[in-house]
Amino acid sequence: MLRSTGLLILVFLMVAPLWSQEGTSSSATTAPTTDNFQMSVPPPVSAEPYPTVTGSEERSNYLWTGVTLSSTYSDNVLGGVTPHPVSDGSYSIWPYISLDQAAPRLHSVLNFSSGFTFYQHTSDRNEADLNFISNISYRLSPHITVSVVDTLRKSSSLLNQPDSFGNAAFGAGQVSPVTVLAPVADQLSNTGTAQLTYQFGPNAMIGTNGTFSNLHYTNPAQVPGLYDSASRGGSIFYTHRLSGRHYIGVTYQYQDLLAYPTGFRAETQAHSFMLFYTLYIKPTFSISFLGGPQYSNTQESLSPPTHTISPAAGASMSWQTRRTNVSATYSRMVAPGGGLIGAVHEEAAGLSVRCRLTSSISAAVQASYSDVYLLDHSVANQAGGVGTNGHTIAGTASLQRKLGEHFALSLRYSRLHQTYSNIAAISGAPVTNMGTVSVSYQFARPLGR
Length: 449
Prior knowledge:
This protein is mainly beta and 449 residues long.
């Protein structure tokens, strides 16, 4: 994981001197360019997720900095560690800095925040939090583009993170490192994607992706029944533009999915060959479909290999206006275990809605559903029957009001319901409710003006 993050930092240092170039931002990653020749990368194979802000909230060539103070109450801070759910309140302080800068050949988005979370009674869960998200896209030539996307998170609670669930992206580069959400547990996750695309004709493009993800629980005693996991993989694709609005293509994807239960290691290698189609109804309104066969081979040290062949499919849409942003996804395919004892076959759906109600008030809703089962049940048998099938239903709603030029007040409610009867960290208290009140100060400065 450190090697992958180091590579990202090296790329960042190489392109940083180019930031002084002036330019304007392109539209969201899902929107086709106004250039009649240059093609967009369709969402099913893109390294970048859908945008989560409304059109009027998008800003390029800006630097933001500030601090957020929040107070949170949760009715389940220990999960299944105790026989009954334990309620507690916590306080957090989050200084942050964000940069969005666009030039004719480079667009870079960097977000960094680091803070502390203190619990009133369960002080052993106090945590130093860290978030680093980078999205860098550089045009090496008029026809060749390199993109690097990386997310690094260190936290005691995924539920108080931005975009905890409802992440509307299912492309080849979007592999979530977490399947089972531990309500409060010290954990470190890192996900990265590098993409190279080459448009070799007026309506033809090829590309390749490399991906990795890691999940590490720094204190296993907080998450009985959950384990570290990792994934790495790559893909190649070809896409053809039938017209300004219709994209079709084919992609091959390889995944190496690893889980580290106590005493042995489970590994799954998956191969998929899928067709995809994207329709751009408007520059900021797209619908995509993906489907094809998927083959997997699972091995662990104490049992014979297990082979599966199953259909994989996905669909998504993104719609962005000046006051509204809506994105939704559905996928059914082999995925990393993300805390479980092996790779899984996952059926998942996500929804994200954000709306500016007035010039000073905005609201957002996110929701997700996933249903998973292990590809190889012999892995569960080796671990004493733990970590078998289950499902997750999660949602969050928030409301924010600006208080003048620099201050804002926000309210947020999250609910998580997970059914994994054989995982001690979940089965004892499968439902978590969390409410948060935050006050933030933000200073924004335009760059190069």
